[in-house]
Amino acid sequence: MTSSYRPRTTIEQWRILQAVVDFGGYAQAAQALNKSQSSMNHAVAKLQDTLGVKLLQVQGRKAELTDIGEVMLRRSRQLTVLVTELEQLAENLKQGWEPEIKLAIEMVFDRNLLLPVLKEFQLHSRGSRLIMEDTVLTGSLETIIHKRADIVITHQVPKGYVGEPIANFQLHLVVSNNHPLAQRNQPLSPDELSQHLQIVIRDTAQKPLEQQGWLRAEQRWTVNNFNEALQLVEAGIGFCWLPPFTIQQSTQLTELQLAGGSHRSGATYLVLPKDEKTGPCARLLYDMLVSELTNSGPFR
């Protein structure tokens, strides 16, 4: 339902009021806006008459805000910023700039590495919304193949796509300090490990490959993310493969030694699923990620 209220003031009147204050007077504002001083006086006078309040008072040769004017000016700045952003958004959309982009991130990737880029990207995003979502195992592949995201950070690149290597990842085998396996002083065999409950992360694919990665565990509880897994591991319920950025949050873990290797590791890649159809905003973020992560990461 739309409101029946009709504004009695205009955006231009508020902009003129702001200019008179910012430039220190009617004459200076008129020169800055390339308008006549009389038109500036008329606009502010009409604004005050319409509202029925005094916004400005002239002290000598300078126009100063009244107490009411201070409040109204502050709120008017919010209004004009919103209008400017709305007009800029329309221009961006006309030029093909996306109103929304999606970045899918394989859960083994440390999001802390993204923060400097995202902080800089926000300054150049022109109001586009950024959606970030976690993907796991074959869910990452599906996101690329079905083009469900504009940019994907993945640990595996499907055939027919190109990935830009950006960082390595590791997973460490851990249990609670109170778990029976924590008392072992020698490497475990895979068969011994399989006799205990494993905490695994849910594959985000619509059609997961049940025999891939950690999903091969017969005794397993499934959770949505590493933080949920960490809680169960700390409670002594099972073991899990966790990344360093999750493990460092806890002092209650013991890293297990597994015959044949206690770490799982690999590389992560940046992929543009839509290739040449990628929009300019997504392309900007992709270029910023490549520049930052390939220059500061292990592949520099």
Written description of the protein model:
The chain has helices at residues 11-23, 26-33, 37-51, 67-94, 115-124, 138-145, 190-193, 226-234, 244-247, 280-296, and strands at 56-59, 62-65, 100-106, 129-135, 151-154, 163-176, 198-201, 220-223, 240-242, 253-255, 263-271. It is α/β, with parallel strands linked by helices and 300 residues long. It folds into 2 domains: 11-94, Winged helix-like DNA-binding domain superfamily/Winged helix DNA-binding domain (Arc Repressor Mutant, subunit A, Orthogonal Bundle), CATH 1.10.10; 99-300, D-Maltodextrin-Binding Protein, domain 2 (3-Layer(aba) Sandwich), CATH 3.40.190.290. The strands form 3 sheets. Strands 3, 4, 5, 6, 9, 10 and 11 form a 7-stranded mixed sheet that branches. Strands 1-2 form a two-stranded antiparallel sheet. The protein has a two-stranded parallel sheet with strand order 7-8. Strand 1 and strand 2 (62-65) form a beta hairpin. The protein is elongated, with a radius of gyration of 29 Å. Residues 9-66 form the HTH lysR-type domain. Belongs to the LysR transcriptional regulatory family.
